[in-house]
Structure formats: C-alpha cells, structure tokens
Amino acid sequence: MDLQVEIMEQDEETAVLAAAGEVDAYTAPKLKEALLPLTKKENFLVKVDLKDVSYMDSTGLGVFISALKSTKENNSSMKLVHLQDRVLRLFEITGLIEIMDIEWGANG
Q1: For the ranges 7-16, 23-32, 69-78, 83-92, which has the lowest average pLDDT?
Q2: Which residues share a beta bridge with 76?
Q3: Is residue 94 within 8 Å of residue 60, measured between CB atoms?
Q4: Average pLDDT over residues 63-72
Q5: What's the mean pLDDT when you consider all of the chain?
Q6: What are the residues facing 81 on neighbouring strands?
Q7: Structural domains present in the chain
Q8: N or C: lower Cβ tally within 10 Å for the chain?
Q9: Residue 101 bridge partners (DSSP)
Q10: CA 85-1-51 angle, 5° bins
Q11: Distance between CA 75 and CA 41 in Å, rounded?
C-alpha cells in the first residue's frame, strides 16, 4: 500500500500534516520529506494526523524520532493525533509514548 501525505492546514504558528496508508521502509522517506521542514520553523507546532495510517514499522518510528530531534533543535513542537490502536501500540512498546506528545482520542 502507498502512503499519501498532505499538509491540510497551515498558518504562521501551526501546520496539520495528514498521512494515510502504511509507513514502512518504502514510504517513510515521503513522510520525512514532508515533515522535517515543518519541524525546522522556530516556535511552530506541527500536528501529525495519523487516523488513516493503518500500519507503521520501525522505519516510520525513525522518522518521528528524527522529527522530534529537529523540534528540540529548532524550538518547535510536534503532536501526533488520532493514532489507530495498532500504531499507538508500537509507540507504547518502544517507550516513545513517554517522550512524544501523543493524543489518541477523537478530539486530537
């Protein structure tokens, strides 16, 4: 399955990046290419909507780790929202849920 990545909303302080499909070794570079530039804007919030991501592997986690590192370096922030249970479980198992801003409820 392919991955679609789209910046849904953007203003001077916030962007919403929506991803749909599967994030794996083949599709992760597409996500990284869209996400990393947003994390390099100072005092900027990037919300990553993962409600339509049905699968993610360690390569996908690596993209989010890189993005988190970039937010720290650039005084920006990232919030992951609307994670499906399967994807959320991956963040729980790896302990990333402890260091990343993740909101998995319906109102994320």
Answers
A1: 7-16
A2: none
A3: no
A4: 98
A5: 94
A6: 49, 103
A7: 3-103 (3.30.750.24)
A8: N
A9: 79
A10: 30
A11: 8
DSSP 40-84: TSTT-EEEEEEEEEEEE-HHHHHHHHHHHHHHHHHT-EEEEES--
Report helix, strand or coil for 26.
Answer: coil
- Helix, strand, coil proportions of the chain in percent (round to 5)? 40, 35, 25
Q: Which amino acid is at 105?
A: G
Dist CA 4 CA 97 (whole Å)? 24
Amino acid in position 29 = P
Task: Give the DSSP H or E segment for 98.
Answer: none
Q: Interhelix angle for 58-74 vs 85-94, to 10°?
A: 70
CA 73, CA 26: separation in Å to the nearest integer? Answer: 27
Query: What is the pTM for the complete model shown?
Result: 0.92
